[in-house]
UniProtKB/TrEMBL annotation:
This is Mss4-like protein. The keyword Cell division does not apply. It comes from Chaetomidium leptoderma. Keywords: Lyase, Metal-binding, Zinc. GO terms for molecular function: carbon-sulfur lyase activity; metal ion binding. It comes from the Eukaryota.
Length: 151
């Protein structure tokens, strides 16, 4: 899949032909970074994209912030137009996660059907009935259970 930022300075192909998952995140941080009601993240394996090529790295700016789960989030932006392109989490010990979250609006041909709504406890818009939804983090986090469809 092709990924491009608003100005076109950032351009790359995703490591796999489709994402592993697609999240619509309603947390307050994603609402702030997207300047909207929720953020979208297409989850891809980091291998094949990281380490970043010298060309791509030279066009990205990095901002880092702590997460509520004790991780660090590396947030990559286009240095020209300022659009957030992707983010990647690091564990408390500095180990990078094996996935990267590419901002969904930048992925050409992304299929939105089946997107998983996460952090719905912070939602400011109605979450549609019949979709997979999580009150907080998605099921990949041990001990979390879905809050049920349409709740």
């Amino acid at each position: 899949m092709e990924v491009t930022c608003e100005c076109g300075a950032i351009h790359f192909t995703t490591p796999t032909p489709s994402p592993l998952a697609l999240y619509l995140c309603h947390c307050t941080e994603c609402r702030k970074q997207s300047s909207s009601a929720f953020g979208t993240s297409a989850i891809f394996p980091a291998a094949g994209l990281f380490p970043l090529s010298a060309d791509l790295s030279s066009k990205l700016s990095l901002w880092t912030r702590p997460t509520s789960e004790g991780r660090t989030l590396d947030c990559y932006f286009c240095s020209e137009c300022g659009v957030r392109v992707m983010h990647r989490a690091r564990e408390a010990d500095g180990t990078e996660r094996d996935t990267v979250r590419v901002k969904g609006g930048l992925v050409r041909g992304l299929v939105w059907e089946g997107a998983i709504h996460i952090y719905t406890r912070s939602a400011v818009v109605d979450v549609p009935d019949g979709v997979e939804r999580w009150d907080g983090a998605p099921g990949e986090v041990a001990g979390r259970k879905p809050v049920g469809e349409g709740k």
